[in-house]
Design a protein that fits this description.
It is a single chain. The chain has 953 residues and is α+β, with helices and mostly antiparallel strands. Helices cover 46% and strands 21% of the residues. Among the domains are: 72 residues, no CATH class; 66 residues; 176 residues, P-loop containing nucleotide triphosphate hydrolases (Rossmann fold), CATH 3.40.50; 108 residues, Elongation Factor Tu (Ef-tu), domain 3 (Beta Barrel), CATH 2.40.30; 102 residues, Rossmann fold, CATH 3.40.50; 99 residues, Beta Barrel (Elongation Factor Tu (Ef-tu), domain 3). An 8-stranded antiparallel sheet has the order 17-16-22-13-14-21-18-19. Strands 7-8-6-9-10-11 form a 6-stranded mixed sheet. Bound molecules: guanosine-5'-triphosphate (GTP). The site of guanosine-5'-triphosphate has 17 residues, from helix 23.
């Protein structure tokens, strides 16, 4: 499976929801803006899918159009940070109080105000100002009309006209409001957003009044309110001006001071908060207020009475707290807490310090994009943990994005990316855990030594591939190896006359070659294409040529069977040239030898040519590193357990090494070469049989030596988990048993199969053949294939993926049959590959006819064996489950592999022949024509009945 690339590697394509957030505009607005600008939108984008991605040009166009909003947002953020810092400072002076108020308050007014035209208001004040001062320009431009017109003209005028007088009278009650107004103004400005701010700011600076009236104007009550604001505005002005008189700290004067200060503060804040966007800020501020506001006792109550007049509850509450707090602080100060002051100073210093650290950390996080390395299908809980955020936050973000996720729900790649984005994480998926291994480590030039080439022989059927391999192998043995005949272990190494070594992959044909390549295991360095001289370049010859080209592996042509009288090598060379293979005899570069695999003619010089070609490749490896190899064959050996032939590709594999291979890990218990001699080490390009695997790996799996076994185990279990999760997610509700019916009734499109077999070769062959059965309606998928008995985990896998289990020359281990029955998993067992293929084909075509049905009657364990003269071997047995019948057929299963199938000759209890023996009883069994029964063997007895087959639904 191709490793998923990090999104950051791709050209930056921003998601719609991100752009929306970034630019502070609705997704709908973005979509329509893009349409207006003539962009072609894909379906997702056109539908406003928040995950749809924008091309960089679209993004640029949006930035151009809406950067103001984005700027505003950025400024707001900046300001928020400032405010947070200020709050943290929480100076004892009255100043902080207003700040605190300013924050919560704008929020409250902000919302209601936001909807109406916030902009018009600034306009309103602008008018009054016009008279007194310059700055009317902005107003006319923006000046919408509604509120502005109704409220603005008169009140504004009044406000200005009446200033001082009104104030003198109105002062007491209004004192409470100034803040409110100020805030109102703030919010108004906030809404005005963009341009007006600058203006507003200037206005504020010069004349505080205008801004306030505006604020009020915005608010519902026009007349009265306007009047008040003006008054307040003046007040503020006055206070500011007059207040030079100190005493701020004094208890008695506290109130007056406080208010004066509050007012000033608020005005100062106005332009900043003017940038604020309503809701978020509100929440934040409320929280802030809650946090900053000390548990001041009767704060609320204390403050309220003064303010009852004006109806802004939110404000009152918060400001009351602050007021109360200030009062307390000031009183404390006044009562002469010198030590307190120092303590406060210290506290402030500490706070500053903490704030600085926090800021630095934030900055750091912002600067370096956070990358999350996770596997697909992790649960929401795990994702939250990986991001170090509370899981409910992740869930609620999910809701916000329209995703209903629960804590244990497994998430697909898109959901993970989306959620992680929300927390500013980039996601890197670990599809292949191998990525985590340090395989990429380059070998130093000086560590590299040359290694033998690894060669695969390919060609058309019957052109002599096997004969050539056999000849080479035998010739090699004859050449003086004392180890005896080489065994078929999937690969072997020979030594040429020049004392050079060549490793051959012992599986002729391109199936094995492509099967490995399909798994990303490029083992072969060189291909020998065999063509029979008495035949022609055939389809599979062309396939072989194409395979070697696709793999970018050089080829050497062997024109075989030249001993045959009908041999016509020239014709073959000409035909090869037609395929673009120019052999050297034809002036081309491809080396070619005319051979006879049967009697060995020119095989030596063929090997020389192979060696020459290999020399050009300058193949090297570093024997001084941990071994890395590829499994070329794996099988279940009766005595040794799982045996895997590993072709070491780099480094050295040693006995005792800890390794991970496929989904399993372990230690190399022992190693044997192709002559079955025990070896302690295996260097580059050496094929070796590895013992000590807990389960059979797949052909093409990489075996990687790890420093510690624990590490290897972790990787294996991660892989298992990944496979499990992926399988769960790829669940298809299809079973072979229902296949025909489902094809007809439900039009199902997938048939999942778990293939188990006795040797890797047959498993591969069967799997490949089954895969090829896919037709237009139904695709065959091999969800798992492996060597060995059918285990519970196979059944569980089949359950998870609704698969059928096909066993070739293997049987379910004890108890598994019962589980399969309970789970309604169909296990089909075969001894002939062709039968399996035919059955599946029939099932796929919905043609399976009723036939014989085999029913297993018992499982029997051989506990002792006795040799009796005439009778042969008697198996002293125990019936584990079921009931053995005298006429039952039987299979002998050893280590999960069927070694014999036949019939029961005699069935006895004590010395009597019996018709049947039930579970829990002992009996003596002899098998017709078979005596090689061993203790530990299992008999599986069965009867064959003429019944409709399961598949013939
Ligand atoms: N006369 C002659 N016969 C050969 C030679 N090489 C192979 N044969 C015969 O050709 C037949 C097929 O040879 P194999 O080696 O089985 O061919 P293959 O390409 O391995 O065939 P598949 O495994 O079916 O793909 C056998 O009967 C061989 O004895 C040769 O050099 N000369």
């Amino acid at each position: 499976m191709p490793a998923r690339r990090r999104r950051s590697d791709q050209p930056k394509r921003v998601q719609l929801f991100k752009a929306s957030r970034e630019l502070n505009i609705a997704t709908d607005t973005i979509v329509s803006a893009l349409k207006d600008r003539g962009f072609e939108l894909d379906d997702k984008l056109a539908a406003g899918d928040p995950n749809a991605r924008l091309d960089p040009e679209m993004h640029d166009a949006l930035i151009e159009a809406y950067s103001d909003d984005a700027d505003a947002k950025a400024r707001v953020r900046e300001r928020r940070q400032q405010i947070a810092a200020e709050e943290a400072d929480e100076t004892p002076e009255p100043t902080p109080a207003p700040v605190a108020e300013a924050k919560p308050e704008p929020v409250a007014p902000a919302e209601p105000v936001i909807q109406p035209p916030p902009k018009p208001e600034p306009v309103a004040p602008a008018e009054p100002v016009v008279e007194t001062a310059p700055a009317p320009e902005p107003a006319p431009e923006r000046a919408p009309e509604p509120v502005a017109e109704t409220t603005a003209p008169e009140p504004a005028a009044e406000a200005e006209a009446e200033p001082t007088a009104t104030k003198a009278e109105a002062e007491p009650p209004k004192t409470a409001e100034p803040v409110a107004e100020a805030e109102g103004a703030t919010s108004a400005e906030t809404k005005a957003a963009e341009a007006p701010k600058a203006e507003a700011a200037t206005v504020d600076a010069s004349t505080p009044e205008p801004s306030e009236p505006t604020a009020e104007a915005t608010e519902p009550a026009s007349g009265t309110e306007t009047a008040e604001p003006t008054a307040e505005a003046k007040k503020v002005g006055e206070l500011d001006a007059s207040e030079p008189s100190p005493e701020a700290d004094q208890g008695g004067v506290v109130r007056a001071n406080r208010y004066g200060l509050t007012g000033t503060k608020v005005l100062g804040k106005i332009d900043i908060s003017g940038l604020e966007t309503g809701r978020r800020r509100k929440r934040k501020r409320n929280n802030d207020a809650a946090e900053t506001a000390p548990p001041a006792p009767g704060a609320k109550d204390g403050g309220k009475p003064t303010r009852t007049k004006k109806g802004k509850k939110g404000r009152k509450g918060v400001s009351q707290d602050e007021v109360q707090k200030n009062v307390q602080e000031t009183l404390q100060k006044a009562s002469g807490g010198g030590s307190k002051r120092t303590r406060q100073k210290r506290r402030r210093a500490r706070r500053d310090e903490r704030a600085a650290i926090r800021e630095a950390r934030q900055q750091e996080l912002l600067e370096q994009a956070q990358v999350l390395r996770v596997m697909e299908f992790i649960s929401t809980g795990d994702l939250a943990e990986a991001m170090n955020v509370p899981v409910n936050e992740v869930i609620s973000k999910g809701f916000g994005l329209g995703m209903m996720v629960s804590i244990n729900q497994r998430l697909d790649a898109d959901s993970i990316t989306l959620l992680a984005d929300e927390f500013d994480y980039e996601v890197e998926f670990m599809e292949d855990v191998e990525e985590e291994l340090d395989l990429g480590e380059e070998d130093a030039e000086e560590d590299l030594v040359s290694r033998p080439p690894i060669v695969t022989i390919m060609g058309h059927v019957d052109h002599g591939k096997t004969s050539l391999l056999d000849y080479i192998r035998q010739a090699n043995v004859v050449a003086g190896e004392a180890g005896g005949i080489t065994q078929h272990i999937g690969a072997y190494q020979i030594t040429t006359d020049e004392d050079k070594q060549i490793t051959f992959l012992d599986t002729p044909g391109h199936e094995a070659f492509t099967a490995m390549r399909a798994r990303g295991a490029q083992v072969t360095d060189l291909v020998i294409v065999v063509v029979a001289a008495d035949d022609e370049v055939m389809p599979q010859t062309i396939e072989a040529i194409n395979h070697s080209r696709a793999a970018e592996v050089p080829m050497v042509v062997a024109i075989n069977k030249i001993d045959r009288p009908t041999a016509n090598p020239d014709k073959i060379m000409a035909q090869l040239a037609e395929q673009g293979v120019q052999v050297e005899q034809y002036g081309g570069k491809v080396q070619c030898e005319l051979i006879s695999a049967l009697n060995g003619t020119n095989v030596d010089s063929l090997l020389e040519k192979v060696q020459l070609e290999a020399d050009l490749l300058e193949l090297t490896a570093n024997p001084d590193r941990y071994g890395i190899g590829t499994v070329v064959e794996s099988r279940l050996d009766k005595g040794r357990g799982v045996v895997a032939t590993v072709l070491v590709q780099n480094g050295t594999l040693e006995e005792g090494d800890a390794y991970v291979v496929g989904l399993t890990s372990g230690r190399v218990r022992a190693m044997f070469n192709e002559r079955d001699e025990r070896v302690k080490v295996a260097g580059p390009s050496t094929p070796v049989q590895v013992l000590g695997l807990s389960s059979a790996p797949d052909v093409g799996d990489r075996l990687i030596v790890m420093e510690e076994e624990r590490e290897a185990r972790e990787i294996a279990s991660k892989r298992q988990q990944l496979i499990r999760e992926q399988t769960l997610h790829q669940r298809r509700h299809v079973t072979l048993a229902d296949l025909s019916r489902k094809i007809k009734l439900e039009g199902i499109t997938n048939l999942n199969i778990v293939v188990k077999g006795d040797v890797g070769g047959s498993v591969e062959a069967l799997s490949d053949a089954l895969l090829k059965l896919s037709n237009e309606e139904v695709a065959v998928q091999i969800v798992h294939s492996g060597v060995g008995a059918i285990t519970e985990s196979d059944v569980m896998l089949a359950v998870a993926s609704d698969a059928v289990i096909i066993g070739f020359q293997v049987r379910p281990v004890a108890g598994v049959r019962a589980i399969a029955e309970r789970e309604e998993i169909d296990i089909q067992l075969y001894s002939v590959i062709y039968d399996a293929i035919e059955d599946v084909r029939d099932a796929l075509e919905g043609l399976l006819e009723p036939e014989e049905k085999e029913t297993v009657t018992s499982t029997v364990e051989v506990r002792e064996t006795f040799k009796a003269p005439k009778v042969g071997t008697i198996a002293g047995s125990y019936v584990v489950e079921g009931k053995v019948g005298r006429d039952d057929k039987l299979r002998i299963v050893r280590d999960g592999v069927v070694i014999y199938q036949g019939v029961i000759d005699t069935l006895r209890r004590f010395k009597d022949d019996v018709k049947e023996v039930a579970a829990g009883y002992e009996c003596g069994i002899t098998v017709k024509n078979y005596n090689d029964i061993k203790v530990g063997d299992q008999f599986e007895t069965f009867v064959v009945t003429e019944e409709k087959r399961k598949l013939a639904v």
